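4.2 Preliminary Data

To establish feasibility before requesting continued support, the project team ran the inverse folding procedure on a target of 85 residues. The structure was first converted into the token representation described in Section 3, and no sequence information of any kind was made available to the design step. The complete token record follows.
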């Protein structure tokens, strides 16, 4: 995974590539249950994407964004962190 291109290399030496519409730095990824044909990717800006390999073609789709609200504590109370998806 690069900032502008994602490439997949199979065991049979097939190569599949797709261009990322907006250059980004990917920070995390995980396969979706049920096989290695779909992954969820996250970038440094909080955007979440889906990457799917089907019929010898990579499909790249933006799913949404994650935003975070941090609440700080004072000496008398503690406020929880809140995560919104």
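Position-by-position output of the design step:
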């Amino acid at each position: 995974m690069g900032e502008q291109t994602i490439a997949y290399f199979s065991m049979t030496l097939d190569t599949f590539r797709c261009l990322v519409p907006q250059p980004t730095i990917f920070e995390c990824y995980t396969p979706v249950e049920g096989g290695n044909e779909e992954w969820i990717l996250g970038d440094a800006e909080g955007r979440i994407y889906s990457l799917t390999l089907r019929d010898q073609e990579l499909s790249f789709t933006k799913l949404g964004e994650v935003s975070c609200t941090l609440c700080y504590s004072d000496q008398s109370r503690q406020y929880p962190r809140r995560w919104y998806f």
